[in-house]
Amino acid sequence: MSTKTTKPDEKGFFEKVKETIEELWDGTKDKVEDIKDAAEDKFNDLTKKSAPAKKSVAKKATAAKSAVKRAATANTTKAKTAVKNVKTKADTKVKAVAAKAKTAAASAKKTVSAKTSSAASKAKRKPAL
Hints:
- The chain has 129 residues and is mainly alpha-helical.
- Helices cover 88% and strands 0% of the residues.
- The chain has a domain at 13-87.
- It has 1 helix and no strands.
């Protein structure tokens, strides 16, 4: 006769705890994988939804940049034109003032030379005493 019993072996307390922990662990792993897959799907959905918004924002930014460039170019052109007009007016004014000064200097020289020559001729006429 054999010493083995036909009854199923009863598990001890620690073995039961160990099996319970393993079952919980396996269930937790499955749950984590499901959550991870769901998160990846949600991320991909959000990325797809945000792509058109990013493009429209990029287009608006590009349009704004080009508008600023155009405005800057227009303002630069206006400023250059204004500087040219002011410079032309200043050059004309300087030439006019220089011509007036030359004319005044020439007339002053004539007046001085006329006074000098008349004074010299008067001095020659006086008889010596």
